[in-house]
Every structure is written in structure tokens, then in C-alpha cells.
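User
Take a look at the entry that follows and flag anything odd:
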Amino acid sequence: MITSSTPRDRLGRDTGVAGSAAPTGHSARSGWFRSLARAPWSSAARREAVLAAAGVAIALPVLVMLSTTALVGPMFLLVLSSFGALTAAQRSRFRALGGLDIPRRPAVAGGSRWNPLVRLRSESTWRQASYHFVVGPLLATAGVMVLLGWGAGAALATVFGWAWLMPLGSVVRGPGWTTVDAWATLLGLLLLTLAPWLIGQVNRADRRAATVLLGPNRARELERRVEDLAESRAGVVDAADAERRRIERDLHDGAQQRLVSLAMNLGLARKTLKDVPPDAMRVIIEAHEEAQAAIVELRDLVRGLHPVVLEDRGLDAALSGIAARAPLPVRLDVHLPQRVAPTVEAVAYFVVSEALANVAKHARASRVDLVVRRTGPLLRIVITDDGVGGADPAKGTGLTGLRKRAASVDGVLSIASPLGGPTTITVELPCEL
């Protein structure tokens, strides 16, 4: 028997049994026996009965409309216009009496929500029609039958309490009436035992049908959430790239300029001060060399955050700089008719940079071929080396990081690296047309 608080997923879908997932096997049988053993006068049983009775009260006007309009002509459009009120009533019933909050459906697109013709074309309208015209009346009928059986069970179970009020010779107090009433009592007790379980099953089916048919379309809702997540992730990637650019500018225009100025002053002091003690000159020389080393490290750090040439001159020039700094020969073939989105440029730059670093560290290659093409909506990067091959992302060679970096913009990275080589890394990044 379902309690008044039924567990739901994030879309408000009834998961079946309060406090746990849908039971199977032994747990399902134990729940069935517990439902049978629950007293018909318990508060949970009363709540289930009230929920079913409220459903009957809402479904009766629909049955009347169905019998009078026969779903033809303008009256059918009138019935469609009443769906909003019927759905609101059912949502209120489940929320107040059934512990189930059915999410609201999105507004009908393509015109005014009060236009019956627009509503007629809506997929959600037909899902509501399935509930209000078919599922709701059927479950309400089942609820009426169970409630009547519940009442009949109460009357039969107490037959010995009120049979003496009936006149002698009647069916209740006729010949052998005690035997007949004993069987009636047993039948009444059986009905009282079964009624809470039956009404719980009816309400469980009602909850599930209402969640599916009166709430948002689950598939559409999941599609919308996937789109929202994709947009959110794209926003996070763009924000991270913009933050890297800001840090690069701050370091380049602030700390790096101060270090350059300090190194120039120390170099000037090193050349012009001739009458200082040798120990002091040694300190100046060491400070000058440390300042120059710090400038080199800071420039490498700035280039690793976001190279200035990438923003100023584009991906072609930035990749040329990477190829020139590589510790092995790189044959570069780049053909980009126009620039792609800055975020995609940054991902492509760092993928190539890290891939060349991996080749220099692990591949034992003598050369690398780098081909970059834009084919329709894709930026395609192919990196091929003549090394020993056998590259495996599971071995921690940085390939997993490359794949994750490409995936940050919905890109795909594939690796072909047989033993003995060559190794080919292909990256496809979506970019705007």
C-alpha cells in the first residue's frame, strides 16, 4: 500500500513504493503481505481512500461531458479548453492527498495558449486527453468499485451487530440466518483486508499515469536539460579561456615588465659600477642572472596560459611558433580560410603543444607531420610521427588529458599507434561556420 509520501525522481516521476525503489522478489511479496495486514481504519488507508474518492469526483464531470458531447463539433473544442482546469485539479489532488508534485508542463508553443486549434496540434494536449478521457475514468471506475467493496465489507463484517434490527423472516433473519451471517462476516473481513491493498494499487497506477501524461514529456525534458548542460559547459569553457587571457595580460603588462626593468637596472649596474667590492659585484651578477632566468620562466608561463600570438595573429602563426620551438623537425601544413572561435583556437593550440611534447618525450621520433584543415563545421588536426609507436592512453602518457581537452568543446580525439609506429593522432573540433 502506498503511503501519502511517494518517492519521486527529479522530474517528479513516481518510483512506485514509498521509501524504496520498486520491489522485486522477496521484498515485493513481503510488501504485499504487509499491505494485506494493514488495518482498513489506519490513517494511511484513509488517505488512500480519500485520494481515490477525490479522483472519482473529478472524473465524473468528464464522463458527463463525454456522454453529452460525443466528442464531436464545437463541444470537443470546449472540452479541450477545459483541460487546463482539469489538469490543475488533478495536480492539486496528488499534491495535497497523494504526496506527489507533478511538474507543470511548458507553455504551448506556436500561438496563444487559449487558441483551441493551437492546443489541438500540441503533443501535450493529446497526452492530457489520454488521461482525462481514458485513464482517469477507468481508474475512477476501479476506485468506485473498490470503495463500494470496502463499504460492503464493513456492512458484512458487522452483520451480527445490526441483523437483530431486521424483521424476522427476512433474508438476514430467516431460517438458518446465523450460518449465513457467519459466512457473510467472513466475506466482509476478506473484503476489508483486500480493500486497502486494492485501493493502493489503483492509486499507484493513477500516480504513474498522471506523472507521465499530465507532466512534462520526459524525453523532451531530458533533451532540454542536455541542451542546457551543453550551453552551461560551453559558458564555463569560454569563461575559463577569458580568465586565462586576463591572467596572461596581467602577467605580461605587470610582473613581466617589472622583472624586465629590474634586470635592465641590474645589468646597467653590473657594467657601470667598477669601484664596488668583489663580494658586492658577485651579488649584483647573481641577482642579474636570477632576474633573467625569472623572465624566461615567466615568459614560458605566460605562453602556457594563452600565447599572445594566438590572439593577435591566429592559429596558423601560433602553430608556426610551436613548430619552431619543438626539439625535433616539424613539417607544418595549415590551411584555414578564416579564423575559428577563440575557444576552439585555444583548445587546438594546447592539444598540438601537448602532443608535440609527448612525441619528444616518449616516441623517439625523428620528425613530425602536422596537418590542420577546416572541413565544413570541423577543425581537423592530424599529428603523425615516425616513432616507435605503442602509445596507450592508459599508461599515463598525457593522451587522456588531450582527449579530455578536446572533449571540453565536444571534440573527438582518436589515436592509431601500432607497435613500431607510426603514431597518428587525429583531433576533430566543432567550430562555427
Observations:
- Residues 25-216 form one domain.
- The radius of gyration is 38 Å.
- Residues 1-29 have pLDDT under 50 and may be disordered.
- The beta strands are 330-335, 368-375, 378-385, 412-416, 423-430.
